[in-house]
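Priority: medium. Attachment 1 of 2:
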């Protein structure tokens, strides 16, 4: 189990993450989402001890990660900028990983590469952006980590490769019970693989829920009134956001209960239907509210 306690990190003129508390259970996949500059990469880099926190600590199975090489051997980190081996041939990077990570499994790497087809004789600089992402994903996964931290692993991938990568990830997590944190702006990807979602904005956690709870808590309703809608309808306190489309209204609410249904009916609502709400909708309305 990964535990993050009161983690804060500031740069000269910016408090990038503020008092972050999080628990990620073994075998679960946590999706970290938030707007540009929210603090996602800083949080991930602080978890793996690339950045030293100003306050707080991170433990894996009860042991502190900071300055702890034996725990770090159990952590796989794929950053959002994979440019540290640019001049290396891929086969030499594989050799380096074998040396650096006790659990690195070259057979597993080659098996995943049957899908991704990265030429091992090439230098990293000769690869496309998508191929660099695939390469570092393969290297990180083949290190067989207990904790896997992935910062935007699907960025730059075409939809076909992206699906293959996510399937390889989910199968591996299922088999090895890896604990995973994954950050991405591709929210539909996260929706398909995560059991837990954390929204972060301006360095702070603003939501930390299972995907099921998020979906139960926030709803999009389509409402059509028999005649005119109440004058103040778009400003009802129950709604986070209301769009008018012709005669019908789409309203986002996080208190979809009997009381609201009765209020709508008393005010002349003829038709009320619950519509599918994506993770992207949820993030946008939570941040904007
Ligand atoms: N090394 C650094 N030095 C100074 N400021 C930094 C540094 N790294 C990040 N920041 C600042 O900290 C804040 C959080 O940045 P971070 O990269 O963690 O955000 P993010 O959520 O990952 O953003 P994005 O989605 O754009 O990748 C930003 O204001 C950023 O400018």
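Attachment 2 of 2:
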């Amino acid at each position: 189990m990964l535990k993050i306690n009161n983690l804060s990190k500031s740069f000269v003129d910016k408090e990038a993450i503020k008092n972050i508390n999080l628990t990620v259970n073994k075998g679960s996949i946590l999706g970290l989402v938030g707007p540009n500059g929210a603090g996602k990469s800083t949080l991930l880099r602080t978890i793996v001890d690339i950045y030293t926190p100003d306050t707080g600590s991170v433990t894996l199975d009860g042991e502190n990660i900071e300055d702890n090489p034996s725990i770090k051997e159990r952590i796989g980190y794929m950053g959002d900028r994979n440019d540290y081996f640019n001049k290396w041939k891929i086969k030499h990077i594989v050799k380096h990983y074998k040396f650096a990570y006790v659990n690195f499994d070259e057979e597993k790497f080659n098996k995943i590469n049957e899908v991704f087809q990265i030429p091992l004789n090439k230098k990293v600089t000769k690869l496309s952006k998508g191929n660099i992402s695939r390469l570092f994903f393969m290297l990180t996964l083949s290190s067989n980590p207990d904790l896997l931290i992935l910062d935007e692993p699907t960025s730059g991938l075409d939809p076909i490769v992206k699906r293959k990568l996510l399937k390889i990830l989910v199968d591996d997590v299922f088999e090895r019970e890896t604990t995973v944190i994954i950050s991405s702006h591709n929210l539909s990807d996260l929706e398909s693989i995560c059991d837990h979602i954390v929204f972060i904005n301006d360095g702070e956690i603003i939501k930390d829920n299972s995907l099921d709870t998020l979906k139960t808590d926030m709803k999009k309703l389509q409402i059509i009134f028999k005649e005119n809608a109440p004058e103040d309808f778009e400003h009802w306190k129950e709604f986070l956001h209301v769009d008018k489309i012709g005669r019908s209204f789409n309203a986002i609410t996080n208190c979809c209960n009997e009381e609201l249904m009765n209020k709508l009916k008393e005010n002349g609502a003829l038709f009320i239907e619950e519509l599918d709400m994506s993770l992207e909708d949820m993030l946008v309305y939570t941040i904007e509210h």
